[in-house]
């Protein structure tokens, strides 16, 4: 850290900022290359019905396997892609790939599984977003009613007025909308009040502390009750143990996702593990 004097003020200039800018420019370059070089892949984590333990849907999760860096966690490359604007192409790449993969092993109609795709708030604010995703669905053939768009809450803060019409349009097209990481943002209740949501996902941090006493248990019950009162589906993420699962059963949670059932799987492993999917392909 060095000091720069500016008319009586002291401004701190952080060398890590320039390092960071370098890093971003590097990642920008790398992400473009990664998409064109097939380094980005998509894996799928099952979401199962709490009562029947049947596979209901999967969440698509982006993976980046770089020959030199190894596997880069989404937390890193998604943030970099957002900061460089590359999230638009990356997001659409994941969306299309996921629709194709899932449509192939689970055609529309009875028994079709749902597909959840994470969408960055920046993508939603791009004017062509809803037109693009609806046309990608048409191109692939997948019914948009099978597709849920997951949005994290901390994105909108200043943009509720811009986001609301887009969400309404996405709903008109038949998509489902889910609020991801519920309970960790700034205005969870305000989103529920203003946006046409079908689903909330209880953030993993609540499930983590679930069995330790404290407030998590009460909060989880409250979120499930709140979701149901609003006619929404409630999903718990990060379920790792039987004890957590059993509690969610008794609290009437709808869907669970987590290592207790499955880790995120390649499309091949997903099909191998779930018989109905492999039969659909055969
Ligand atoms: P998320 O949407 O909340 O996804 C759930 C994350 O929790 C995933 O991490 C998943 O692998 C992890 N997880 C699932 N079950 C368990 C469990 O039982 N225990 C633990 N400890 N973790 C579990 P992942 O794949 O590292 O993704 C992190 C975040 O990156 C995602 O959080 C999502 O916000 C973002 N992300 C991933 N793919 C995409 C994408 O294609 N587009 C956008 N915009 N964001 C993405
Ligand atoms: Mg998600
Ligand atoms: Mg989440
Ligand atoms: Mg998360």
Automatic annotation (TrEMBL):
<protein>
    <submittedName>
        <fullName>Cache domain-containing protein</fullName>
    </submittedName>
</protein>
<feature type="domain" description="EAL">
    <location>
        <begin position="24"/>
        <end position="278"/>
    </location>
</feature>
């Amino acid at each position: 850290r060095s000091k720069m004097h500016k008319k009586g003020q002291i401004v701190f200039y952080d060398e890590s900022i320039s390092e960071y800018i370098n890093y971003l420019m590097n990642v920008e370059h790398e992400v473009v290359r990664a998409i064109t070089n097939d380094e980005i892949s998509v894996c799928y984590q099952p979401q199962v019905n709490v009562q029947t333990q049947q596979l209901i849907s999967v969440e698509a999760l982006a993976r980046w396997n770089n020959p030199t860096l190894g596997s880069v966690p989404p937390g890193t490359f998604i943030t970099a892609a957002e900061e460089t604007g590359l999230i638009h192409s990356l997001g659409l790449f994941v969306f299309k790939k996921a629709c194709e993969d899932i449509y192939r092993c689970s055609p529309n109609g009875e028994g079709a599984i749902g597909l959840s795709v994470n969408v960055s708030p920046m993508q939603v604010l791009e004017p062509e977003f809803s037109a693009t995703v609806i046309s990608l669905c048409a191109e692939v053939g997948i019914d948009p009613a099978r597709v849920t768009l997951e949005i994290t809450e901390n994105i909108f803060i200043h943009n509720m007025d811009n986001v609301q019409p887009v969400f309404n349009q996405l709903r008109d097209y038949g998509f489902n909308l889910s609020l991801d990481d519920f309970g960790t943002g700034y205005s969870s209740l305000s989103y529920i009040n203003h946006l046409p949501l079908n689903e909330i996902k209880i953030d993993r941090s609540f499930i983590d502390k679930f069995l330790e006493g404290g407030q998590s248990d009460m909060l989880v019950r409250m979120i499930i009750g709140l979701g149901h009162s609003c006619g929404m589906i409630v999903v718990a993420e990060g379920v790792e143990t039987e004890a957590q699962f059993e509690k969610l059963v008794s609290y009437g949670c709808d869907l669970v996702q987590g290592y207790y059932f499955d880790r995120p799987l390649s499309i091949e492993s997903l099909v191998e593990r779930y018989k109905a999917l492999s039969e659909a392909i055969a």
